[in-house]
Amino acid sequence: MNVYIGNIPDDVVDYDLRRLFKPVVGAAGSFKVVEKRLNDGIYRYGFADIEPQKLALEAIGKFNGTEFRGRRLIVREFLHRSYSNERRAIDWRQKPWHKDERRDNERRGSGYSL
Length: 114
Fold this sequence. Notes:
Helix content: 10-25%
Number of strands: 6
Number of helices: 2
Largest sheet: 4 strands, antiparallel
Shape: globular
Radius of gyration: 21 Å
Structural class: alpha+beta
Oligomer: single chain
Strand order of the largest sheet: 2-3-1-6
Strand content: 25-35%
Order of helices and strands: EHEEHEEE
Distance between the termini: 51 Å
């Protein structure tokens, strides 16, 4: 099972995550720290691939919300999102709008007042 580890400190590397999770997971997991540079700074998070699923759920329960080097960790199951598994229909951009689906008539109509 893939596990997301968020809100990690800036100086954490893969080895630190492995050491932190070792009492629960043992040698059953692999860990990776990802760093993304955005306009407002650097965003860091970690991934863990833990098998069997029972160990992963136990690690999520134990480490979610715990403090690690001054920060409260966010540990949860990682759900990969892509265009193909969005909530919208697959070809939603190509479909024409039906008159009832348009929101122009719903917004600030004659009954709208401040």
